[in-house]
Amino acid sequence: MVAAEVVVIGAGIAGLCVARVLHEAGKEVRVVARELGEASRVPEALLNPVRGKRGSVAPEAEEALAALWDFYPRFVPVRQGILRPVPPAHRPAWKEKLKGRGIPHQWLEEGLYLESAGWLETTPLLHRLAQGLEITYAEVERLEGRTLHLRTPTLATLSAGLVIYAGGASGAHLVGLGGRFTPGSVLHTLEHFPQACAYGVYVAGHSLGGSYLPHQSSYTPHQTQPAEVEWLLAEAEKLLGYRPRWDTSWAGVRYRLDRHYLRPIPGGYALTGFGSAAYFYAPLYAHRLLQQIN
Ligand SMILES: Cc1cc2nc3c(=O)[nH]c(=O)nc-3n(C[C@H](O)[C@H](O)[C@H](O)COP(=O)(O)OP(=O)(O)OC[C@H]3O[C@@H](n4cnc5c(N)ncnc54)[C@H](O)[C@@H]3O)c2cc1C
């Protein structure tokens, strides 16, 4: 049975962005996923072009920013701006990295203000992107070229004209691309932070997030550890001057494939491995995939 012209495995931000872009371009698309999002259910996602404590400007940041501002505001509000409270001693090195790049920014007394960066709440976005798409909720047990073997009460197979793997960390074994898996957690804070602020850890909305745990070579589900909570609160104290009160936590695993976010696989393409920049790059790479298959 041919299921659809294109079958997308995964309904996280990578799968839903690409499914949406292809659907809007008139392709017949079916998404197959266990559930709506997984690591993409990180409660609030930063859209941050200047990364880490070293201030590395993300590759293709200008293109990624243009693509995401063209795309997300059609579905949900995107809050504009991220403050990076870079210590004065590190500012010259950051300024050097921003030189010649097209990233709108201002240096304030408090640090670097990135006006074209932002953040959004993920759950409403995932639901809005999914609206009107054909989604089959099932576990893919095995992928053989363009044939998906589904784990249903009776094992079903599904064939596609083209397969796009966007199954993130937990599905990575289906395509065997290697990569690094990094667990991390986000605390739900009682206080609401309308201004996103990031250095070491980040606060945005009701989130205090970050990760310091070592990479792993395969996927293992993660649960927030007491040591992580202590680390997040200690880092938040450096950022804010106090420890925010919190009630619940969210835990997830980032999957990183060093810049090869879009690559051919037997039967189609893999669109995955964005690490902690999935929401930042997904619209750009979804459009690139459309260009490739047109
Ligand atoms: C602490 C922390 C903070 C983060 N902060 C940010 C941030 O600020 N900004 C940002 O952009 N990113 C952030 N991330 C990263 C982000 O959470 C994820 O990396 C990203 O959303 C992954 O998206 P994805 O679509 O590739 O995969 P996922 O969201 O993991 O989706 C995978 C999809 O594939 C499906 N699937 C997998 N295996 C199978 C199978 N066998 N059969 C059927 N379906 C399957 C799942 O059901 C799901 O629908 C953070 C991560 C962590 C841990």
Which helices and strands occur, and which strands form pairs?
Elements: E1 2-9, H1 13-24, E2 29-33, E3 44-47, E4 50-51, E5 56-57, H2 61-71, E6 79-84, H3 91-98, E7 106-108, E8 111-121, H4 122-130, E9 134-137, E10 139-144, E11 147-151, E12 156-165, E13 180-199, E14 201-210, H5 226-240, E15 246-256, E16 262-265, E17 268-271, H6 278-293
Parallel strand pairs: 1-2, 1-12, 2-9, 6-13, 12-17
Antiparallel strand pairs: 3-8, 4-5, 6-8, 7-8, 10-11, 11-12, 13-14, 13-15, 16-17
Helix pairs in contact: 1-6, 2-6
The structure holds flavin-adenine dinucleotide.
Give a written overview of the molecule.
The protein is an alpha/beta fold. Helices cover 24% and strands 39% of the residues. The strands form 3 sheets. Strands 1, 2, 9, 10, 11, 12, 16 and 17 form an 8-stranded mixed sheet that branches. The longest helix is centred in the C-terminal third of the chain and has 16 residues. Flavin-adenine dinucleotide (FAD) binds next to helix 1, strand 2, strand 3, strand 10 and strand 13.
